[in-house]
Amino acid sequence: MFKRMLIANRGEIAVRILRACRELDIDPVVVYSQADKDSLAVQLAEHSWCIGPARAQDSYLNQDALLTVAKATGCEAVHPGYGFLSENADFADACAREDLVFVGPSGDVMRAMGNKAAARELMQQAGVPVVPGSEGGVATAAEAARVADAIGYPVLIKAAAGGGGRGMRRVFDPAQLEQLFEEARAEARACFGDDEMYLEKLVLNPRHIEFQIIADTQGNIVHLGERDCSVQRRSQKMVEESPSHALDQDLRQRMAVSAVAAARAAGYVNAGTIEFVLDPSGAYYFIEMNTRIQVEHPVTEMVSGIDLVREQIRIAQGLPLSVTQEQVELRGHAIECRINAEDPARGFAPSPGHVGLVHMPSGCGVRTDSLLYSGCELSPYYDSLAAKVIVHAPTRLQAIRRMRRALEEFTVQGPATTVDVLHQIMYHPQFVRGSYNTSFLDQNLDELLAWSSYGKEA
Questions:
Q1: Domain 132-201 has CATH 3.30.160.390
Q2: Averaged pLDDT score across all residues of the chain
Q3: CA 429 from centroid of its chain's CA atoms
Q4: Which residues belong to the active site?
């Protein structure tokens, strides 16, 4: 096993990886920006190094600084977490040149799957269903218009190198296509440094279903079931659960087979996620692969009992998967709520600042992954995710009730958070019935805000 590993990230995922390293008897090295000098990860680490100013471009995205620290501290491997450089093929290549093991797939695989247009073509060759769309990238708004006319409106403009809902626009009216295409391309250029775009048919009101896979260097690929990530705001996930109430056993098995086929076609190694949209008729389509650990990975850990970060590190070491597909046993139901430091009363504006008292929920079947502690500072420079509350129970209804209780216990004094609106989601009839889709939050947000403390204060 590795003796020392660099954690090339921050926040709750840095803490999560640090804990996995400690349990594997690996010495973790934490990096931090000047804004994060008092972060929880730094306080828990024995070795921590400042890599630059607050701006991510000058610190967590600074490849030279990260590699310099890794070499100076005698690290053998680098874990990128999620976000930042986790899906940067050039960084994976740079690690390899420095004889550092990148905990994730190779740069070549990331290039193949990270470019959505190229990944789409690969999936078609592998027999995995894809949404009708452009064959490769589209260079101009005029070309996009021709593709849209051929496949029919509404369409979805997407950044080929994008993710997290950025560089994406829905187009219902042909008259708006040129403006929205240029908006999406500008956003893609700013967020990803790549403005290649492509088009696909917009599947209205789908479920967003993703399958967790793990693959080792010996050619073994195992899926760990699905997660339903359909509760989203502006394509940003807020609630995830497993298993999905929308799948019967036959559909689940067919989607799992497609997920494994997708990973095999890509020559994938390590942990990854195959994402699908599921339309109201039961047809499903591949949309993308995330070549990293996901924010919502604890949901799968709770139902499978498999530590995904530990598995990632074992795979990077060259060890075989710790389980076969036949040994995977998914039990009960898990739900995750993402607690963001945002103010729903102000359009979910970021809410950084000083944190007073923090009380995390606990008890049977409750897990909290967080960067919070009493007296910490929430930085305005990074993503607003502050914590994730995950629950597990024998049935879905029991899990919903457990999450209600957990959110009622969650206390953060100071910055506004999304706790109250998440709490109300757990009571909404559509969610309780499991009959929601990706339009759920858009359709019900005003009602949810009125029910919550935001409405009461108003």
A1: no
A2: 95
A3: 26
A4: 292
